[in-house]
Write a structure and sequence with these properties.
The chain is α+β, with helices and mostly antiparallel strands. The protein has helices spanning 106-118, 171-179, 186-197, and strands spanning 11-12, 23-32, 37-44, 50-57, 61-68, 75-83, 88-92, 95-96, 120-132, 141-152, 165-170. Helix content is 17%, strand content 41%.
Length: 201
């Protein structure tokens, strides 16, 4: 299906270069749904040549590494779900976004997504940092959390998440899965690298 926006969606902008030396000559919304908006910008590159940039606009999301136990007995809780675009089931940390509440506090979203997907509640939830998912084509930003002091309860999966399964594995087994390339989710790997760099695991 091809969506052709009306001329009313085209916005001429100024000739002021941004920090990278790019000038946005015009911008239009090419496609939009409740979760994603695709913007098409006509740009002038720093070398003076004009071009086109397609940008996927999505709201902030959270990704949570839930760690239980102590010392050599530490565990990591993962989810596995089918990812339609790549047609495969993937191991991931719990993550998500609240499309209907774009201004929600990330701390609340992190606690909510953890509980929703795994049934876990965390007495301690530490915000570790921020990552960008696909900064070459998307505006989406993720907040990385480290969750500990876990209590197991019931999950509350949405209709689109009914295939999610939840698995708690020893930390050493999780690290093996990373080494053996069984975990291929870029966000999960980036979050783990950030948390490890802080000495939290």
């Amino acid at each position: 299906m091809t969506i052709t926006p009306s001329e009313e969606n085209v916005s001429p902008l100024t000739d002021t270069p941004d920090d990278g030396g790019y000038v946005t000559l015009s911008s239009r919304i090419a496609y939009e749904n409740p979760w994603t908006r695709v913007r098409e910008d006509i740009i002038r590159r720093p070398n003076g040549k004009d071009g086109l940039y397609g940008i996927v606009e999505r709201g902030d999301f959270v990704v949570v590494m839930p760690v239980g136990g102590e010392g050599s007995e530490r565990t990591v809780t993962l989810i596995q779900q089918f990812r339609y675009p790549v047609q495969r089931r993937m191991w991931e940390f719990p993550m998500g976004m609240w499309e209907t509440k774009p201004d929600a506090d990330p701390d609340a979203v992190a606690a909510g997504e953890l509980r929703e997907e795994t049934g876990l509640s965390a007495a301690r939830m530490q915000h570790v940092g921020v990552v960008y998912q696909g900064a070459g084509y998307s505006t989406q930003r993720g907040h990385v959390y480290f969750a500990t002091d876990l209590t197991q309860g019931e999950n509350a999966l949405e209709d689109t998440e009914q295939d999610i399964t939840c698995h708690t594995v020893p930390l050493a087994e999780f690290e093996r899965m990373v080494r053996d390339n069984e975990i291929t989710c870029m966000v999960t790997l980036a979050a783990f690298a950030m948390i490890r760099s802080h000495g939290l695991v």
